[in-house]
Protein: 3-oxoacyl-[acyl-carrier-protein] reductase
Amino acid sequence: MDKVCAVFGGSRGIGRAVARLMAQRGYQLAIVARNLQGARAAAGDLGGDHLAFSCDVSKEHDVQRTFEEIEKTLGHVNFLVNAAGINRDSLLVRTNTEDMLSQLHTNLLGSMLTCKAAVKTMIKQQRGSIVNVGSVIGLKGNAGQSVYSATKGGLVGFSRALAKEVARKKIRVNVVAPGFVHTDMTKDLKEEHLKKSIPLERFGEPEDVARAVVFLLESPYVTGHVLVVDGGLQLTM
Ligand code: NDP
Structure:
C-alpha cells in the first residue's frame, strides 16, 4: 500500500476529522492516541481495514515501537499528521513546571519524535508528506497561553527548518494553524463572547481544519507553508 497515513491524535477532534477525510480519499489509516479504546472506536467508524495504535507521543520508545507496528501491519508511512496536543492554560506566574513540560513534551517534542521516525523511512522511499497542527496562538500569542503559544510557535520553526532539510529527498512539511475549533479542547470556552472577535462569527468545525490539512498533504509543490484556518481571527489579534 503506498497511501498509508498515520494520524497522531486521530481518536478525537481535528485528527479524527482528518482521518475521516483521508479514509474517504482511499488512504489506509493508522489512528494513534494514548487511549487505545478511543483510537479503536475512531478506526472502527471509518469502516475498511484501518488500524488503531496506542502511543504517547512524548515517549521516544513508544513512538519508535508504534512506527514499527504500523510498518509491520500497514506498510511504510508516506503521510503523517501530527494532531496530538494538549493545553494547560494559565498565567505564566501560576503555571507549574510540570504543566510547562507536559505541553512542551506533547505538542513540540512529540511532533519532533514522530517526524524523526517518519522521515527516516520517507528518505528511503524518496517521498513523503507531513502536516503538523500548530495554532494561530503560536503566531500571534495570547495572554494565559504563553507556554502553549511557545510550543506552537516552536512547531512552526521546527517544521520550516525540517522542510528545508528534507526537500531534496522529495519530502514536504507544512503546518496548519487553526483558530477556535469545536472539540474537547475548547468545550469550556465562552463561545458567545469569543466569537465576537472572529470575522466569520463562528468557531470552526474539525472538518474545516481537516480540509486544509488534506490540501497540504496532497499539494505536490507546497512545502514550509503555514496555512491559517481561523475564520479571520488573526486579522483582529
Ligand atoms: P482534542 O483534545 O479533541 O484531541 C486531542 C487528540 O490528541 C486526542 O486524540 C488525544 O487522544 C491525543 N493526544 C493527546 N495527548 C497525546 C499524547 N501525549 N500522545 C498521543 N496522543 C495524544 O484536541 P483538538 O482536536 O482540539 O486538537 C488537535 C490539535 O489541534 C492539537 O495540537 C491542538 O493544540 C490543535 N489546535 C486546536 C484548536 C482548537 O480550537 N480545538 C485550535 C488550534 C490548535 P488521547 O487523549 O487518547 O491520547
